Please model this.
Amino acid sequence: MMEFWLISVPLDKVSCQSLEKLKRVSAKTSLTMSSRFHIPELKVGTLDVLLGVSDDLSRLDSYTEGVLRQTSQCLGEVMEEFSGKLLESMLANGVDLATYVTRFQWDRAKYPTAQPLKTLADIISKQVSQVDTELKSRRAAYSHVKASIQSFERKTEGSLQTCALSNIVKKEDLVLNSEYLTTLIVVVSRMAYGLWEKTYESMSKFVVPRSSRKLVEDADAGIFTVTLFKNVIAEFKSNAKKHKFTVREYNLDEAEKQKQEIGRLTVDKKELYRTFVCWLKVNFSEIFVAWIHIKVLRTFVESVLRYGLPVSFQAILLQPTKKSRKQLRQQLNSLFKHLDPAAATGKADVGLDIPDGNTSQQEYYSYICYPIKIHLVDPS
Model:
């Protein structure tokens, strides 16, 4: 998992000195990679608007991350490739995710900064919702075709008593277009091959001599053909049953239709795969970009709410290593304790309403911090 912390502190003298100290300590100890993070000038609006947008963005953040995960997991399932190739497909605006985050630039074309904060949140919400809806639809269509193919494939597997015969019996194995003769397909236990050869011609007077031919066999049984007159089918079946030979029902026209259907489904799956993977790559990028913009909006809104007007704060992007996270958190808490001495514990019991009905505990620190956790592919 890759993790960034987008933090914001006011531009007062003590905070600026603390930032400089953080940079020096980080450089000496390799505690974290840090860089300035540009947040554009956005429309502030009233306090009521800021509070409302703050709640909206909190929900939107969780919802968007959920759609992002679904998109990446779906991409992994559909590609059915090694994770290396999958990770190469998960890009944001044509670059890897870490590069996009560290070199972030606000997309003014998609999200005009002249628009009110509420409008920007609504633009992103609509965009994410549309992707979510289309993802469900496309995923269902792909899954349906895949399930249909798997259903056909399962029918061709299993014992000769039950498996589909379309890939076993060919036209040339049958007597076709005869007014009087027909061919039956019979399953014979391997232990009973000798009995079959001795008895099949005598199961009716009108069995064609030496007409039996073995088509295929597995560990337990073999499939044989036998040619006889149509008017003695019932008699032959009855006598075959007495010897525990199974006459399989087989319709050549139906078998041909099944072959055509599986061929059509295979072509459909290839085409769906091509378009679906392309759609997933494009929309994964779109949603990731939207998600980072949400983090930026949340940082801006919370900075105004906490640090007041006029807007005066600076945002820093930190990239702690897994081993250094705890130590870095302690360092940050110590450096910026002056901003809110009561926030020493680092947690506030804030239940966030997430669209799926779950609640999440919001981390709270004396400084503003929004984690960006990129762990979108389940390695299992």
